User: Fold this.
Amino acid sequence: MDLALAALAVPRRRQILEILGDAELPVSAIAAQFDVTRPAISQHLGVLKAAGLVADRRVGTRRLYRARPEGLDEVRSWIDDLWRTSLARLKAEAEQEAKEQR
Amino acid sequence: MDLALAALAVPRRRQILEILGDAELPVSAIAAQFDVTRPAISQHLGVLKAAGLVADRRVGTRRLYRARPEGLDEVRSWIDDLWRTSLARLKAEAEQEAKEQR
DNA sequence: ATGCTTCGTTAGTTGACACTTACCGTTAGC
DNA sequence: GCTAACGGTAAGTGTCAACTAACGAAGCAT
Assistant:
């Protein structure tokens, strides 16, 4: 989870994920869409892979990357839990305040 | 969104959010649960507030902080979108591969 | 075998940020 | 008014990571 959220914190990595959500692509094709060098993208992909957000497969000299939606499960459930408990507490406080109003 | 995800990337800030999800607390009470100084927590709260993940209200000399679940909405929807599209693409590819198998 | 392409990796630099120490403003109570 | 408690802010430090440039490895083609 640490790795996943740290990976998602960098805007460029999020853009990469959005691109890989639609298509399976080699590193060069991704790098062509940004104004940074290919090694930079390669490093970002390494981070995303370590976080489980991306998977790769080799085909010839190229290496195709694709998004891995399962990697988002932990993050999704953590955020949802926090969202629910916070909302429940807010609701409880509102009711408490309403009771004190009377 | 940039701010929200950057805020969530730091483990200590997530811990603070978890604590504030259960209760409304002043800065000192939060700092007491960690082995860092109060200014550090104060700075983290400033980041969380700028990201819209936390709200504060003053009561006497103290300042009470609480989690703000609405701040998570953007992040939740972004992750859900990415999750859905990635899954859809994977499914489409699997069907494509099955078709080629025949 | 020789290029050529595609990609990963290393070293190095620069900028951001988490943290501490010290200081200042604000509010409540004697 | 004075004092103490609570909290935000400034300056400084150390560390981490995003990026570039340069090099090396692996597979395909003529």
User: Anything to note?
Assistant: Chain B has five helices and three strands.
